[in-house]
Design brief:
By secondary structure, the protein is α/β, with parallel strands linked by helices. The chain has helices at residues 43-46, 54-64, 82-92, 135-138, 152-164, 183-193, 203-207; strands at 3-13, 23-29, 50-53, 68-72, 97-101, 114-119, 144-149, 171-176, 198-199. It has one domain: Aldolase class I (TIM Barrel), CATH 3.20.20.70. It has seven helices and nine strands, in the order ββαβαβαββαβαβαβα. A nine-stranded mixed β-sheet has the order 3-1-2-4-5-6-7-8-9. The radius of gyration is 17 Å and the shape is globular.
Amino acid sequence: MTELAVAELFVSIQGETTAAGLVCAFIRLAGCNLRCSYCDAAYAYQEPGKIMTLDDVLAWTAAQGARLVAVTGGEPLLQPATRSLLHALVAQRQHPVLLETNGSLSIADLPHGVKVILDVKTPGSGMAASFEQSNLERLRPGDELKFVLTGRQDYLWAKEFIHNHNLAGREILLSPASDSLAPAQLAEWLLADRLPYRLQLQLHKILWPGADRGR
């Protein structure tokens, strides 16, 4: 029987990615191999999570009535059963499934119908060396790249990374880290450089300030 360690299941407004603003059923899996300086979901690795069968997770998802489903963490690809979950979710649904991953593990062999949100860790995260470069070659049309920025140096680093890897044609999300970079400052840099990248704010934190989970 396939089992997963689940940090939490909840329905909320998707706060990030190009799907921001949509009602979304979230499957947050437990465990993470990174320790980013700005992590806002540390409970996903600090707590062991609830052991659930794949069938139970799928039954919960089917009962929520949400068109969009996101598998997140922690780092969801740490669990061997995650790929089985993604295959089952794609088979269950008529709409894409989002996978939010920290970029340190291979995204090879994911089922079609999964949209990858690939995090590229900047130096300010303390985890920049963790990125699996070969994942850039595995990106498919519609996948997105996310850079969380703690300041000006991260912004410049992200610009150089995008240029060096010929990623300008991709959907690029630049997100200011909470308490480190003012959104208006990032907006000014984007305006000054006329960059075609998306300024991403965490909508759920604007809607529910102070909520530390389940949002």
